[in-house]
Design brief:
heterodimer; A: alpha+beta; flat; B: alpha+beta
Chain lengths: 236, 211
């Protein structure tokens, strides 16, 4: 049987209550469990195969690979408009069903001043409501200090693994920083694994897309070499 | 059982959400998992997800016997997955036979468990299937080959869950056997599942190092 500790592989049906609570049942309210863990009969079980992680002895979750996005509130996602009705757009965000986007959920939109978005257009939006029992609702309304939401134009859309997208979204991502030193570009990374890129020419946009796709399985040390090659390919 | 007994490759199909290519002895199957996705409204259940297993032969259409295998796989997968977490959706599992040299059902079940693990869908527990044959002299052979199956008096496929307590999920039997033999088989097969589960664990370790 596997020895269960933090940063070790755990499998579904493993009972991890003894390592999370450490026998201290009265401190239960101080612990928070996240994805991949569930409580059955006051015991904590694993329900996804991956690595058990812990932060500050307080937050616990299982890190596992996943391809299908499941909506969570306040995530920034990128979607493709798939259908239009009289009241709302239906947007494909890569989840199990289409998300709804009301016409009024845009900055400065009124009943008369409708947003002009066509089928197949790409939008960035924030998830307002997410429950498995209903269609999730997204919105493009921008608040003070929020990132710019709404239609994304003249760009290129690629889809990557969900875990890789989350890695890129971390502010210490070296890849995006190094790329920016060679070419100016705009990038939006959705929590649903969709990445939208825009730069001065089609050539550089596609090159950036390829570099991002190639870097998925590379180690941190190999990234400078990849970027060197990328820079060479631009100057041909 | 030796090391060459199980071989597997995870995530070999790019477009599906999870996939596994498994060979157990000389039998090989490929499984892909898609979902959870929105099914037709007639198939949609409001409080839970549905599991849809499709079995495909190398050539030709499937027979009544293959339909039965589909049913066994479907009920086993549904038991293992947390279907309540995915209401109004459907999970499609497609099993493609690549080569059949006996123990097909056990290989299909193990492969579908690995593919479901790869897809990241929440599960109550994992499952492992073991086949065994009983000879005339009441001898139990684990993972028999084609000849041994044909000359046996009874043939079992037993599926156990990975929970700490011993839980039999599915039992498929053919032939005549006594009650005591069945209990003996259960003990032997249950002991053998430990090896399968440690194989699963190694696969997940490899997959996480790779990414």
């Amino acid at each position: 049987m596997l020895s269960m500790e933090f940063n070790n592989v755990v499998l579904p049906s493993n009972d991890v209550s003894h390592i999370i609570l450490k026998g201290d049942i009265c401190k239960k309210n101080e612990k928070i469990i996240g994805p991949g863990l569930k409580i059955v009969d006051n015991k904590i079980f694993v329900c996804n195969s991956g690595v058990l992680k812990c932060k500050d002895e307080k937050l616990f979750w299982v890190e596992y690979r996943k391809k299908k996005y499941s909506p969570a509130k306040d995530d920034i996602v990128i979607g493709i408009v798939a259908a239009k009705t009289s009241e709302m757009y239906k947007v494909d965000i890569g989840a199990s069903e289409l998300a709804t986007l009301p016409y009024l959920a845009f900055t400065n939109a009124t009943k008369k001043n409708r947003p002009d978005i066509k089928l197949g257009n790409v939008i960035a939006a924030k998830i307002k409501m997410a429950t498995p029992y209903m269609e999730s609702e997204i919105s493009c309304v921008e608040y003070a200090n929020s990132i710019i939401l709404g239609q994304l134009e003249n760009g290129f859309l690629i889809t990557v693994n969900l875990n890789y997208a989350l890695q890129l979204r971390k502010s210490n991502s070296k890849l995006l920083y190094h790329l920016g030193q060679f070419v100016p570009y705009e990038i939006v990374i959705g929590a649903n694994g969709k990445i939208w890129i825009k730069s001065a020419s089609v050539r550089t946009t596609i090159a950036i897309g390829n570099v991002i796709l190639k870097a998925e399985h590379l180690k941190e040390e190999d990234i400078p070499l990849l970027i060197k090659n990328f820079n060479k390919s631009l100057n041909v | 059982m030796n090391e060459e007994f199980l071989k597997c490759r995870l995530g070999f199909i790019g477009n599906s959400d999870g996939s596994a290519y498994v060979s157990q002895c000389k039998t090989t199957v490929a499984v892909s998992v898609v979902g959870p996705f929105e099914p037709k409204s007639s198939k949609c259940l409001y409080d839970r997800g549905t599991v849809d297993v499709t079995f495909r032969r190398k050539t030709g259409s499937i027979t009544v016997h293959d339909k039965m295998l589909e049913g066994i796989m479907q009920s086993t997968c549904e038991e293992a997955l947390i279907v309540e977490q995915y209401p109004r959706t459907s999970i499609a599992v497609t099993v493609q036979e690549m080569q059949d040299r006996g123990n097909l059902l056990a290989t299909c079940l193990n492969a579908s468990c690995l593919a479901l693990m790869d897809s990241g869908i929440s599960m109550h527990h994992l499952f492992a299937a073991i086949s065994c044959a009983i000879t005339d002299s009441e001898e139990i052979i684990l993972n028999p080959d084609e000849l041994q199956i044909n000359s046996s008096v009874a043939y079992f496929t037993l599926v156990f869950s990975s929970s700490e307590s011993r839980q039999l999920l599915t039992s498929h039997t053919t032939g005549k056997f006594s009650h005591s033999i069945y209990l003996q088989c259960m003990d032997k097969c249950f002991a053998a599942t430990r090896e399968v589960f440690s194989f699963y664990e190694n696969m997940i370790k490899k997959q996480l190092i790779y990414c």
